[in-house]
Amino acid sequence: MQTQSTAQSAGPSLMPMITGAWASQAICVAATLGLADLLAQEHQSEEALAHATGTQPAALARLLRALASLGVFRETEEGLFASTPLGDQLCSDVPGSLRNLAMMVGAPEARRAWSDLTYSVRTGNSAFQNIFGMDTYEYRTRHPEERAIFNAAMADMTRQVAAAAVAAYDFSRFRCIVDAGGGNGALLASLLATTPGLNGILFDLPSGTEGAPELIAAAGISERCKIIHGDFFKAVPTGADAYILKSVMHNWNDEMCCTILKNCAAAMSESTRLLLLEQVLPARIEADPLHRRALMTDLNMLVMTSGCERGEAQYSQLLRASGLEIKAIIPTASSFSIIEANRAPYPQ
């Protein structure tokens, strides 16, 4: 008979995954308290950090030591702590910051929804909707602080994906591009800043474009970019020669995706391109970091929304059902790919 000790020593242990939620929450608290910013310039004592964060010194020391065991911070000598390359990613003002993402993932409403993953697996429905009686969009409309963290996290991640997209795809072929569901404009700002001849339209609900005018002005592209408010479930602006949607499809079920895509198709000419920036699931899943990121995101979509991540065949079906067809799928240096589509030459 295999004992507990032999089961744990026979190969890789599940223990780090089982307790992974503890680590995630510890990182969330570190991000919320701004510990990485405090440790960015110099070593700090437990007492100094507790005073700066308004926390109980002994309890904060336990958090710091736990994070040091994860490699997020390091204890330089007893009671003194410094940051590490991992911890630096929690700083608020560095390229590639993950601070907002850590706070979003560890937020109480997200934890409550994930605690009922069993409900989603049994029913196929959103645990978030079941618990709170509303979808995540309505919830964030009612809770501006959570909305601000979500928008900031999405902007941080978008900047990284945008850099990879610009490196992989030639946007200079277009004169005007519509970023549908573009939020605060982080993606469009990156595209226009690196493509001097390109003009852009940021299209989203008013609540989605909070902070967009300031971001666009800071990027120096105000003369080439305008903001139009609207709902892509009803229509999208016409007249552009490219439409880009990042992380839009994975938020919605097939029926709702088809509504968005059909509205895009209606605004497109035969030469117009539709670009979907999404994580495309591989045909065969392996224990690979990129696969893990995409599949964990897929579970998050199950819990939090009505959407899902999809593979090439699923995207092909969605696009064909909407009067579009895949022209190419271009991988990028990130986990995202660019799905390039045009209007189908045949009736649907």
In short:
One of its GO terms (biological process) is methylation. The protein is an alpha/beta fold.
Task: Tell me about this structure.
- The chain is built from 18 helices and twelve strands.
- The protein has helices at residues 4-9, 15-18, 20-33, 35-39, 46-53, 57-69, 85-88, 99-105, 108-114, 117-123, 127-132, 136-142, 144-168, 186-194, 212-218, 254-267, 289-304, 312-321; strands spanning 44-45, 73-77, 80-83, 176-180, 199-204, 225-229, 242-246, 273-278, 280-281, 310-311, 324-331, 337-343.
- Helices cover 49% and strands 16% of the residues.
- It has two domains: 19-92, Winged helix-like DNA-binding domain superfamily/Winged helix DNA-binding domain (Arc Repressor Mutant, subunit A), CATH 1.10.10; 160-343, Vaccinia Virus protein VP39 (Rossmann fold), CATH 3.40.50.
- The model has no long low-confidence stretch (mean pLDDT 94).
- The strands form three sheets. It has a seven-stranded mixed sheet with strand order 6-5-4-7-8-12-11, sandwiched between helices. Strands 1-3-2 form a three-stranded antiparallel sheet.
- It is α/β, with parallel strands linked by helices and 348 residues long.
- The termini are far apart.
- Taking all Cα atoms into account, the compactness measure Rg is 22 Å
Alpha carbon gap, first and last residue = 61 Å
Q: What is the class of the largest domain in the CATH system?
A: Alpha Beta
Helix content: 40-55%
Query: How many beta-strand elements?
Result: 12
Question: Which H/E pattern describes the elements?
Answer: HHHHEHHEEHHHHHHHEHEHEEHEEHEHEE
Instruction: Outline the low-pLDDT stretches.
Output: none
Number of helices in the DSSP assignment:
18
Specify the biggest β-sheet. Answer: 7 strands, mixed
| Helix/strand class | alpha/beta
What general outline do the C-alpha atoms trace?
globular
Mean pLDDT: 94
CATH topology value of the largest domain: Rossmann fold
